[in-house]
Amino acid sequence: VVDLGMPTRSVLTTCAYCGVGCSFKAELRGDELVRMVPYKDGGANEGHSCVKGRFAFGYATHPDRQLNPMIRESITDEWRETDWDTAISYVAEKFRAIQARHGTDAIGGITSSRCTNEEVYVVQKMVRAAFGNNNVDTCARVCHSPTGYGLKQTFGTSAGTQDFRSVASSDVIVVIGANPTDGHPVFASRMKRRLREGAKLVVIDPRRIDLVRSPHIEASHHLQLSPGTNVAMVNAMAHVVVTEGLTDSSFVASRCEGFDEWAEFIARPENSPESVESITGVPAEQVREAARLYATGGNGAIYYGLGVTEHSQGSTMVMGMANLAMVTGNIGRDGVGVNPLRGQNNVQGSCDMGSFPHELAGYRHVADDAVREVFEKLWERPILAEPGLRIPNMFDAAVDGSFHGLFVQGEDIAQSDPNTQHVQAALSALELVVVQDLFLNETAKFAHVFLPGTSFLEKDGTFTNAERRINRVRPVMVPKSGKDEWQVACEIAQAMGYPMHYDHPREIMDEIAAVTPTFAGVSFGKLDELGSVQWPCNDKAPEGTPIMHADEFVRGKGKFVLTPFVATRERSTRRYPLVLTTGRILSQYNVGAQTRRTANVAWHPEDVLEIHPHDAEDRGISTGDVVNLSSRVGTTSLRAKVSDRMPVGVVYTTFHHPVTGANVVTTENSDWATNCPEYKVTAVQVAREASR
Ligand code: SF4
């Protein structure tokens, strides 16, 4: 911890790491940031924080920051520093030249969940209005896009149902494919408080996460299923509810539709816990007990993470959980609900802001004439009615030669996206890669233009957390690069011939509010007055909406959707007999670009491979040995840690360090509806390379 003495002033802002969205007072002495103090009145954190938000801010002033724009003709050339005007003109001319040669659709952009709502909004507007296509996607593609799809199909909007406070009223908490202790520590504390008060806990996860057994907490059931079998599990639980007469009939009759067809499907013998036992590996009686507990134990709440979404049936599983909540009446009041624990600080916001290729701000499809008309009138540009390319489609099109230029906002796709070799081939094939970031990251190795971004300490705007809470992000210091990040997209758009200008990010939020019904009541003034609001915030709910779907679902009636289980095509073989699944650790964050440049790296200096003692013994592996991890797409080396947290046949690692590069081995398999990568299931082999 760096403590530079007594502070002389403070600025109230929001943590830029995870989707909990903790409020902090950034305390300064002169212009020097002394410390981050968790804010006691923060709506999301109530004065609590974790080791990332509290201590891992040193990256913002790290000497690795690249503060001037840079250009190079070829990725084999040396970088040449330049001024902003030259860099902006260069980018605009190159994009225009590519479009002249290859067509309007030959370029696109990726927005970042690390950036503010306002910064994301202007990038998607730049793509739609200045590029003239819908080739914009967000990094949520590779994490929570199935949440967006699944919750919209069933409930009518792409967001969690509850506020964090609601967990204090839960009687049964079901945690599926999430590790809140490491991933969302401050919310985990609230959850643990409720569990210590006596709420029951069901954990559905292949890994024995800390929550299963921690001081004064013991899960009633840990359903330690095989990776890739979530849908079979949730169907089996719903089967128990329907066939044992545990349905909340009055809720279903008054609030939902599609029940009869769904009930006929779910009651089929193939969905019973006994039938799927050989698929999930979980004894049927445990599944029956857990289902009965959730259905009859009082307020039942589901919290889930990327262990749900990052599968070939990620969207199906989200809808399966929604079915389970509806059939038991666990929706629309305190203590219940279906709640995604969002990964990045603004993953909810980056989705809300219209940076999916098929949706404009507020999750409205580009094919909707009335919606397009609203934007076209304000933007004075036509918007295409056909969806654009998703991130994986951009990569494929680049390799195929039909996509040639990419703007990447604050996202290290060369490290974070699956099948690194394919991503690198795509980036290498592009004529123009523009990276806007704090550091020369892995993706910048393939870039022709580098534009310096701003850290959260330099940003002025808003983040939206996992409970739809819109928090203010206030600047603690002036942009080190001399330019606000939102200005960059505006200036590229202007240089390409589309007038786009704002004097202040509050004007961007005013525009968002003007075109997005769920944000109609949001303004910087209101946020400064109330501290934060949860969308929808409009005439009907001027102070926001903590609990959604209270009287009716956003889509009117909640919709039961059939969710047949389909096994992933990723199969263990003689050559690749183990299954790899990936996750995160408390002190580090995603690709580690920030946390690796802070003292937090001392807690996790390298990624390690957890392997069960039986699998380790079979291979002569001990803790500390360097092992080779290989799949059908790639191979990497890392140290082993023998651990019985994983079941036999399953190995686990994190992806915080580029040297290890876990995504070298993950495959191109993805969710059928959204193309979210199947990070959680990769058939691998592990072999000892050397002992420590
Ligand atoms: Fe930041 Fe998340 Fe930690 Fe809160 S819980 S301090 S938002 S990383």
Automatic annotation (TrEMBL):
Recorded GO MF terms: formate dehydrogenase (NAD+) activity
Root EC class: oxidoreductase
Enzyme nomenclature, EC number: 1.17.1.9
Domain of life: Bacteria
Species: Saccharopolyspora ipomoeae
4Fe-4S Mo/W bis-MGD-type domain span: 8-64
Entry protein name: Formate dehydrogenase subunit alpha
Keywords carried by this UniProt record: 2Fe-2S, 4Fe-4S, Iron, Iron-sulfur, Metal-binding, Oxidoreductase, Repeat
Family to which the UniProt record says this protein belongs: In the C-terminal section; belongs to the prokaryotic molybdopterin-containing oxidoreductase family.
